[in-house]
């Protein structure tokens, strides 16, 4: 009876692929590991870099090459944990551009919706026939709902009320007044045990913010590199839509400007209308946003862009300066997504910061908190 393969050797063999056969010492992979190896080879074996470096070559008669995309999805779902499956699917879409991941109805019907697939759908939806687009809508709807459910919690908390300094008899952990409690009980400190005995605890009260009308104008660059920010802008606008005291606008732009405010309450439909790609005229978009302002001192203009201006930088700077001088809060966000890792034109961003705009990157939750703090002042 053959001794089972050392798990560490098996792991290294799966990492190295065919080039790692020597590390097995003549032993063979067990059945589950062989299945994982075939699934990994189906995907990563097509990497041209491997052939160029003579690390591993694919053979036309190999069994792994005969897998269909549907078979492969079934196999990886059965053999790998969820996190690994999501990574494999992401590489299939983004790294290797396997077409039937997004064009085969059988594949779309089986694949687990996730943010990577949502981005891919938005990039390729114009190439889909109606049947495929109907299935792709499921991915859009599922992921958008997941994002909204997460963000809605933050929005509710941010807008539910501010802590007042008045004491309250309603005892709730999040309203615990630590400083007052410590001061009131310092007489009960036990230095030997380095312990403070609490005889009476104090809590803050809460009052609802009395919100005066504000405008929140969200201008989103819909160039291809900003797809993640477009998704989160749509979700953020939908979560803020209808809140008392806030009038939300959502405007997408490339070289043209499209006001999507009428679709904010349906982010799925909104995202399916977005046309990614094309040039970028930020100045034109900001000028449009400035034209929406009713009361500058009660307006937040959030510009989501990589700041690579295809229009007039001087016109952009002038318009932002004018908004700031009128009293509007201007945010320039180089990224609006869960990673908030920006890639942007630092020179243009610095010019906008010099005239008073706040420049940075935010997650949607941080943006919602910023809006809540600003309108609650």
Key structural traits:
377 residues; alpha/beta; Rossmann fold; two-stranded antiparallel sheet; 16 helices; 10 strands; 47% helix; globular; LolB
Brief overview:
InterPro entries: LolB (IPR050458), Uncharacterised_CoxE (IPR008912), VWF_A (IPR002035), vWFA_dom_sf (IPR036465). It contains 16 helices and ten strands. By secondary structure, it is an alpha/beta fold.
Structural commentary:
It is a single chain. The chain has 377 residues and is of the alpha/beta class. Among the domains are: 178-207, no CATH class; 214-375, Rossmann fold, CATH 3.40.50.410. It is 47% helix and 14% strand. It has a six-stranded mixed beta sheet, with helices on both faces. The longest helix has 30 residues, at 130-159. The chain starts with 6 loop residues before the first helix and ends with a helix. The model is unreliable at 57-65 and 207-211 (pLDDT under 50). Residues 213-372 form the VWFA domain. This is VWFA domain-containing protein. It comes from Rugosimonospora africana. InterPro entries: LolB (IPR050458), Uncharacterised_CoxE (IPR008912), VWF_A (IPR002035), vWFA_dom_sf (IPR036465).
